[in-house]
Amino acid sequence: MAETASPADAGAPHEAVERVVAADGAQADLHLVGPLAPAREAVLWLPALGVAARNYLPFARALAARGVAVALHEWRGIGSSDRRAGRSSDWGYRELLACDIPASAAALRRRLPQARLWLGGHSLGGQLAALFAALHPRDWAGLLLVASGAPYWRRFAHPWAIGAFVAAAPLIARVRGHFPGRRLGFGGNEARGVIADWARSGRSGRYAVAGLDEDLEARLAALRLPVHAWRLRDDWLGPPGSLDWLLGKMPQATPRVRTVAPADLGTPADHFAWMKAPDGIAGPIAACVAATPPPESERKS
Asked: What tens digit of pLDDT does each residue of 121-133 get?
């Protein structure tokens, strides 16, 4: 793992970058930020749709300062990824779940073999974290969700407007060859397949991934993990109904939901502002991670 920063003093976190190669050859950087002492807890963090991993570095540093290591996953097509969505370059949730996230998870495990691993995510990252944990439940200590929830159109304050957008997005992506999220103000420039999979869950309220032969709804229903979720009070992109719909898919899990107000952050409690003032989220996450006992099998060993 190539070093990108050296701690200026004993309290500074250690930062490194590893170039991760997925099973199909796609490459992206994995940012790892951790305390100087060997971390006992580590989080693989999945960003929001269209958000580059480097934007979560302040959050990762805030967690590292509290003893929790963080690996920041990069979405295919975004930031340091060697792919860009276009008419001749397409992918969907299948590649993200079967190729990219496994490569980052394996790299984190190699880097921190002694640490207990958590899977977390922001917005879409929280959804895919839940899906990946459901596919690989024994690999994770629990889920950490921030400003997340299912995109089911009926669970939003203005359902018909959301429903119209969910219907239009894949059509736009097919016509353009990719979804021009930068221009439209929603996500990044996204692959047609990603938008098709996202829109499918938005229309039906159910998760099904093209090309992935798994019953994701059944996998979610069987998941038994601690789930900690933070809802931003003024986040119209992640309203209570959206989060409740996602958590309702995991009846065997043990969810705990906390609402974050502006006073907790010192900044607006909306979908993205917390990233610039992450202590109000990082502190509670670190406390939850530290307070969660190991599985019974580990306690007996």
From this structure: 999 999 999 999 9
Q: Which residues are within 8 A (CB) of 48 and not within 5 positions of it... i.e. 6 or more apart? A: 121, 122, 123, 124, 125, 147, 271, 272
Amino acid at the residue 78:
I
One-letter amino acid of 5: A
Evaluate the CA torsion angle 263, 268, 273, 276 in order and state its sign: negative
Are residues 172 and 85 in contact, defined by beta-carbon separation less than 8 angstroms?
Answer: no
pLDDT digits (tens, 9 = 90+) for 63-114: 999 999 999 999 999 999 999 999 999 999 999 999 999 999 999 999 999 9
Q: Is the dihedral of CA 47, 100, 244, 252 positive or negative?
A: negative
Burial class (CB in 10 A: 0-12, 13-18, 19+), 288: middle
Query: How many domains does one find in the chain?
Result: 1
Q: Which residues contact 141 (CB under 8 A, 6 or more apart)?
A: 41, 116, 117, 118, 225, 226, 289, 292, 294, 295
How far apart are alpha carbons 280 and 147 in whole angstroms? 13
CB of 128 within 8 A of CB of 97? yes
Expressed as residue numbers, the domain containing 264 is 2-300
In degrees, rounded to 5, the angle at the alpha carbon of residue 82 between the alpha carbons of residues 80 and 85 is 105
CATH of the domain at 80: 3.40.50.1820
Task: List, in order, residues 6 or more apart from 20 with CB less than 8 Å away.
Answer: 27, 28, 29, 30, 103, 104, 107
- Rounded to a whole number of angstroms, the CA Rg of the chain reads 18
Tell me which H or E stretch contains 289.
helix 279-291
The DSSP code sequence of 87-111 is TTB---HHHIIIIIHHHHHHHHHHH
**What pLDDT score does 293 carry?**
85
- Three-state secondary structure call for residue 15: strand
